[in-house]
Amino acid sequence: MQQKTRAFLKWAGGKYSLVEDIHTRLKQASVDADTLVEPFVGAGSVFLNTDFKHYILNDINADLINLYTELKRTPDEFISDAKKLFVELNNHPEAYYEYRVQFNQSSDVYERAILFLYMNRHGYNGLCRYNLKGIFNVPFGKYKRPYFPEKEMHFFAEKAQQATFTCLGYDEVFKLIPENSVVYCDPPYVPLSKTASFTSYAKGGFNLDDQANLANLAEQAAFENNTPVLISNHDTVWTRKIYSQASLDEIQVKRTISPKGGSRNKVNELMAMYLAPKKR
């Protein structure tokens, strides 16, 4: 693998630290695949650090997919316009909350995309969170000088020319998988405790029934359609149970959501690979 490329968004649960692990598994599972399908693309670290001919990149978060679509469509104009918000005057709570209101009231896709990027870099810990009414409600982040990811955005926009972006439910994405594909799923993780749940990333959440259904879809894609599927999740008794038909690997990773960097403990994650047995 070449030098790693960072995503231009800050993102809870981003896979930048695991891209070598994931890339290796995807390539081993499907040497000849020309399309990578990601039903939960998030910040896109796996997309940015793999070398497939085509990508189908999906996320249920409409604002995220809208941002990617606008950046792909007019990269130079978009980056230039977005950069104008990254000035000292806008790095204050009053400005941030005014822009947040503007975002929540706007129906203009270009304006929402610009403001979504601004809030991602100025909001607390790079979180993306909505209330039950679909209102973005992440508080101000108090950063000394938020970074404007110009170089990373140009790289993303260039590579995005190979990608199709969709905003669908994960089950719909599985119906659209083309031949000669490999699938990587990074769903919202199963909570490690009852108080650790973080499900308000998109309106509607992602519950335990969804987790089990995703495992069933992966099994079906691999064993009936010969499409390899890799899923990452927390290593728990329950995830081991629902992924019982997959080949399981355990890896240690650092938590990425914590206000205190020094207290980020390592946790175990599972890599569940669904792969049809080779015919003799």
UniProtKB/TrEMBL annotation:
Keywords: Methyltransferase, S-adenosyl-L-methionine, Transferase. The keyword Methyltransferase applies. Transmembrane segments: none annotated. InterPro entries: Ade_MeTrfase_dom_2, DNA_methylase_N6_adenine_CS, M_m6A_EcoRV, MeTrfase_D12, SAM-dependent_MTases_sf. Its EC number is 2.1.1.72. PANTHER family: DNA ADENINE METHYLASE. This is Site-specific DNA-methyltransferase (adenine-specific). The gene is dam.
